[in-house]
Amino acid sequence: MLARLTMIACGATPGMRKGRFPSDEPLEPRALERAAGLGSSLRRADRVWTSPALAARLAAEALGLEATVEPLLAEQDFARWAGRSFEEMQAEDPQGMAAWFSDPDAAPHGGESLAAVARRVATLMERLAGESGHTIAFTHAVPIRAAIVHVLGAPLASVWNIDIEPLSLTEFRSDGRRWVLHASGVTVAG
User: Fold this and answer.
1) Spatial distance between the Cα atoms of 163 and 112, rounded to a whole number of angstroms
2) In whole angstroms, what is the distance from residue 91 CA to residue 121 CA?
């Protein structure tokens, strides 16, 4: 039984372009156009899932895909940091920012820790490994990074060494016993 998982990073949002922590906002118009162009890069899917976030749902819609919301694909909950800039939070809460980058269990923003995101992504992948077929999942950079380090068995702190471009594809395959990283960073021209 072969399971395939294609994780697609949501396209750019206005807040992302301004260096802000994610909040639930729509895609930029250009990102919608680019998302529609992904169709030729994707193989037929047996399942299409999205994060609960508006940007993920809009990316799937731009491709004309009927998707089911999968809560385990949600972006990290940044609570009081959501929508605020990195620079603003560095000035306001430098110890919190340092803790967030250095301790995967820290959640100085009052939301979800990186370790919590990693646990839910691992739960999703373990569940999916037992299902054959191809799943396309529209999600966000942090869950995709967590999936990569999970599959590689790398330390969780290494997520900060992985760059996930908007609308890039990261593919995994499983034989039911283990996952392998098949491809990462595939993007659509634009």
Assistant:
1) 20
2) 31
Per-residue pLDDT of the chain (190 residues; tens, 9 = 90+): 699 999 999 999 999 989 999 999 999 999 988 888 887 778 899 999 999 999 999 999 999 999 999 999 999 999 999 999 999 999 999 999 999 999 999 999 999 999 999 999 999 999 999 889 999 999 999 999 999 999 999 999 999 999 999 999 999 999 999 999 998 777 654 4
H helices of the chain, where?
A: 14-17, 29-36, 54-62, 86-92, 94-102, 114-129, 141-152
Amino acid symbol at 86: F
Nearest to 47 by CA among 124, 120, 119: 124
Alpha carbon 31 to its chain's center: 16
- Which residues are CB-neighbours of 130 under 8 A, at least 6 positions away? 1, 3, 176
**CA dist., res. 9 & res. 185, Å (int):** 10
The domains found in the chain, sorted by start residue, are 3-186 (3.40.50.1240)
